[in-house]
Amino acid sequence: MKMPMIFVLVMLAVNFGISWFNARSVGAIWRESKAIGGWPRVTAWAGAIMSSTGFTWCYLITAFLIAGDKLPARYVQLTMEFGYLLIVLSALGSGAVIWVDSMIVAWTKHGTASVAIAGWNTAAMAENTVEAAKTLPAILKDIFASDGDSDGEGVVLAYALRIVALVALSGILTTAAIVRSTMRKKALAAMSAAAESSPAVPSVDRWLSRQR
Fold first, then answer.
1. Per-residue pLDDT of the chain (212 residues; tens, 9 = 90+)
2. Where does 110-150 have alpha helices with state H?
3. What range defines the domain where residue 46 resides?
4. How many Å apart are CA 67 and CA 74, to the nearest integer?
5. How far is the C-alpha of 212 from the C-alpha of 208, rounded, in Å?
6. Are 58 and 102 in contact (CB under 8 A)?
7. Beta-carbon count within 10 A of 71 CB
């Protein structure tokens, strides 16, 4: 049964918003996590992967809504299957790191918010894992059955891989742009605060005027 279009659009908007928030959160800690290294760096990368995965899902669904009815069914099917495979594996990997981190925070802080976040991540991780276990075998069987022996099937495989690669790259670039923008804003805010407390620190306004 097809989902109502309004539901699909709402899900796209929510997923895009969550992905944007994840990218912004990663940008707020990116430099610090790089300096500290270790587990904080792992969680920063996990957040970035989760964000780019969410954007990739949004772009893949949008492309399907725009052009899905203009393409042969086999093209659409393989593209969505390759896209789902990429997205679910990335989400499960990064989601596992985020889940472990939330459990560590809940165990050490014992706060209501941290426990609630850990509970939410546990439920989401369990649901995603069960859903993947149900869906992946059939998808993998169909993908491996499309071995590209025939010219027509080879063209379909190449088309699906190109589309998935394009939307994945778009998701990565979107996350990278938001991370860089957040890092820049945070750095400018830090420079402004330092300039106010110490006259030896150059003013951000003067620095920005020199960049124009």
1. 455 778 888 889 999 999 999 999 999 999 999 999 999 999 999 999 999 999 999 999 988 888 767 777 878 888 888 888 889 989 899 989 999 999 988 888 877 888 888 888 899 889 889 988 988 888 888 877 765 555 566 777 788 888 889 999 999 999 999 999 999 988 888 777 766 666 555 554 554 555 55
2. 112-145
3. 5-211
4. 13
5. 7
6. no
7. 15
Two structure tokens written together for 81: 């299957």
Neighbour-count burial of 176, counting CB atoms closer than 10 A to its CB (0-12 exposed, 13-18 middle, 19+ buried): middle
Q: Which residues contact 25 (CB under 8 A, 6 or more apart)?
A: 47
- Comparing CA positions, the residue from 142, 128, 4 lying closest to residue 76 is 142
Contacts of 32 (CB under 8 A, 6+ apart): 40
Rounded to the nearest 5°, which phi and psi values hold at 7? -65, -40
- Can you give the pTM of this predicted structure? 0.82
Within 8 A by CB and 6+ apart from 21, the residues are none
Structural domain count, the chain: 1
Residue type, 127: E
Which uninterrupted H or E stretch holds 64?
helix 38-67
